[in-house]
């Protein structure tokens, strides 16, 4: 899937975000399926032991690291889901499919999307505007 560069949305629009912020958020959403797969694959370690190296440096708690990664993935997924619900609770599942799988409105028409193209893309822009606000307040995990 290639990224199509579109004309920038007018700064006077009610759901304006910059072009580069839009692409950042769009690529964030496209990781949704990766988070879902990783979340299912990450199982908690039964041992609660902490590995300590000879020099006394902390090398990590495997159970804790897994718990933090799982929590971060769940948080990212919930962030995307909540923004879709906030954009429009009636069509959030279509918005979610569009932003997480890159499916266009035209392809969703076959699955019975219950709104017009203009309405859908207005809600689509609202989704990214909401996500932009949510993402500003959520810290990101920079661990392993």
Extended strand count: 2
Q: Distance N terminus to C terminus?
A: 27 Å
Number of helices: 6
The share of residues in helices is 55-70%
Count of the domains: 1
Question: Average pLDDT across residues?
Answer: 83
> Rg, please?
19 Å
Q: How much beta, percentage-wise?
A: under 5%
Coarse morphology: globular
**Helix and strand run:** HHEEHHHH
Q: Give me the secondary-structure category.
A: mainly alpha
Largest sheet: 2 strands, antiparallel
Spatial order of the strands forming the largest sheet: 1-2
Catalogue the unreliable spans: none
Q: What key phrases describe this protein's structure?
A:
two-stranded antiparallel sheet; mainly alpha; 3% strand; 6 helices
């Amino acid at each position: 899937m290639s990224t199509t560069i579109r004309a920038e949305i007018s700064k006077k629009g009610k759901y304006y975000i910059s072009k580069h912020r839009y692409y950042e958020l769009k690529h964030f959403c496209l990781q949704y399926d990766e988070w879902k797969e990783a979340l299912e694959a990450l199982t908690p370690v039964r041992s609660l032991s902490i590995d300590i190296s000879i020099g006394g440096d902390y090398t990590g708690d495997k159970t804790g690291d897994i718990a933090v990664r799982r929590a971060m993935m769940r948080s990212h997924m919930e962030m995307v889901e909540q923004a879709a619900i906030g954009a429009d609770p009636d069509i959030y599942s279509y918005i979610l499919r569009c932003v997480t799988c890159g499916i266009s409105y035209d392809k969703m028409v076959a699955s019975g999307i219950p709104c017009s193209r203009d309405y859908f893309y207005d809600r689509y822009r609202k989704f990214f505007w909401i996500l932009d606000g949510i993402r500003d307040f959520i810290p990101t995990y920079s661990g392993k």
